[in-house]
């Protein structure tokens, strides 16, 4: 489904993983992520909620100053399947206004977006999905199991989803540093998703 979406990126000679973080920025949580990424010289892409940017703009600046990419994740974390198209598109624009920097990357919350919304969004953004969902937000999933499965399914070119949210915080803070160490030891690099030269790339 949706071959025009980005599910994986296989464009580098060296083994590369594309870490992404959804739902921030959040004080302490996002800052922890930045600290861990810095330890491994890792770059990542942060799909931000506009409302959180409005509340914690100083944290967004830290993300940008560290050289990471940002993407649009709507202003209110809207489920596209349950939202009128006009409201959904307006919410994306509202998030973009809060980000204050140009981005061509959009990720639909929950991965749910209607075909009618896709057509409109692709006029201005590339839609970035994933091939590895860590499940760090699932409180019923033990952290060690989350780590094992994340390592098991991650491969060169994988787009991996973590969450810099309060809900994911207990599991993410266990999994992320161990995942970074595991793949760094095996010669992997961590890159932010490249900004396409035009929407719909």
From TrEMBL:
GO biological process: carbohydrate metabolic process
PANTHER family: CHITIN DEACETYLASE 1-RELATED, GLYCOSYL TRANSFERASE-RELATED
Domain NodB homology: 15-191
Top-level division of the source organism's lineage: Bacteria
GO MF: hydrolase activity, acting on carbon-nitrogen (but not peptide) bonds; metal ion binding
Alphabetized UniProt keyword annotations: Hydrolase, Metal-binding
Cellular component GO terms held in the UniProt record: membrane
The name this protein goes by in its record: Peptidoglycan/xylan/chitin deacetylase, PgdA/CDA1 family
CDD domains linked: CE4_NodB_like_6s_7s (cd10917)
One Pfam short name: Polysacc_deac_1
Coiled coil: none
InterPro entries: Glyco_hydro/deAcase_b/a-brl, NODB_dom, Polysacc_deacetylase_ArnD
């Amino acid at each position: 489904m949706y071959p025009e979406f980005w599910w994986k990126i296989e464009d580098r000679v060296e083994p590369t993983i594309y870490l992404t973080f959804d739902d921030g920025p959040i004080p302490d949580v996002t800052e922890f992520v930045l600290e861990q990424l810095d330890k491994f010289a890792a770059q990542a892409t942060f799909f931000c909620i506009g409302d959180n940017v409005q509340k914690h703009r100083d944290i967004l600046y830290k993300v940008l100053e560290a050289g990471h990419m940002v993407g649009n994740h709507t202003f209110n974390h809207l489920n596209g399947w349950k939202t009128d198209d006009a409201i959904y598109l307006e919410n994306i624009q509202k998030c973009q206004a809060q980000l204050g920097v140009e981005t061509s990357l959009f990720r639909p919350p929950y991965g749910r977006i209607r075909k009618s919304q896709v057509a409109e969004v692709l006029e201005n953004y590339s839609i970035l999905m994933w091939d590895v969902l860590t499940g760090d937000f699932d409180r019923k999933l033990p952290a060690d199991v989350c780590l094992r499965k994340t390592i098991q399914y991650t491969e060169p070119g994988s787009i991996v989803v973590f969450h810099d949210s309060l809900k994911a915080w207990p599991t993410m803070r266990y999994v992320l540093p161990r995942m970074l160490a595991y793949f760094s030891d095996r010669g992997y690099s961590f890159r932010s998703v490249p900004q396409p030269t035009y929407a719909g790339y």
